[in-house]
From TrEMBL:
This is Ferric uptake regulation protein. Belongs to the Fur family. Its cofactor is Zn(2+). Zn(2+) binds at residues 99, 102, 139, 142. The gene is fur. Homodimer. The lineage of its organism: Bacteria, Pseudomonadati, Pseudomonadota, Gammaproteobacteria, Alteromonadales. SUPFAM superfamilies: Winged helix' DNA-binding domain (SSF46785).
C-alpha cells in the first residue's frame, strides 16, 4: 500500500478516535512506512533528526507509544525494533516471520494459530490480552543465495 494512502488511513483512524496525528507522529509513521522490516528507536531518531534537529529520545518514544497504542505498529520484542502494521484498520492476530540474515519481516494473521494459543491458555486458566508471535529463520530471498 502506498505511503500516502497509509498516512490518510491513519489520520482517519485518529479522527474517528478523537486523537491527534501530530506532525512528529506523522513523520515517525512515514519513516516506519519507508522501512523494510524492523528498525530500532535510535535509528529512527537519527532519521528523524534530518527534519527535526532538536528531536530527543523521548520524542521518538512518545511517538512510538502513541503509534503502538493506536495499533499502527508492532514491536518486535526479540530485536527491540518496530515495524509498521499495514492492517491497522482492524484488530488481528499477529505472527512475525523474521529473517536472521537480512532482517526482513513478514506479518501473518493466522486465526488458527491465535485460536489454538487462546484455547491452550484457557486450559491453564490464563486469559491472553495481547499476542504477537515471533518466528526466526531465513526468508526465501536469503534461502535462494
Amino acid at each position: 500500500m502506498a505511503i500516502e494512502s497509509l498516512v490518510n488511513k491513519a489520520k482517519q483512524v485518529c479522527d474517528n478516535k478523537g486523537t491527534r496525528f501530530t506532525s512528529i507522529r506523522e513523520k515517525v509513521f512515514r519513516l516506519l512506512a519507508e522501512t523494510q522490516g524492523g528498525i530500532g528507536a535510535y535509528d529512527l531518531l537519527e532519521r528523524l533528526k534530518t527534519t527535526e534537529a532538536n528531536a530527543k529520545p523521548a520524542t521518538i518514544y512518545r511517538a512510538l507509544d502513541f503509534l503502538a497504542d493506536m495499533g499502527f505498529i508492532h514491536k518486535i520484542e526479540s530485536t527491540n525494533a518496530f515495524m509498521l502494521c499495514h492492517h491497522f484498520d482492524h484488530i488481528h492476530p499477529v505472527q512475525l516471520l523474521i529473517c536472521e540474515q537480512c532482517g526482513h519481516v513478514d506479518e501473518l494473521h493466522s486465526t488458527v494459530i491465535s485460536h489454538e494459543l487462546n484455547n491452550q491458555a484457557v486450559e491453564f486458566g490464563f486469559k491472553v490480552s495481547a499476542q504477537t508471535i515471533e518466528a526466526r529463520g531465513t526468508c526465501k530471498n536469503c534461502s535462494a543465495l
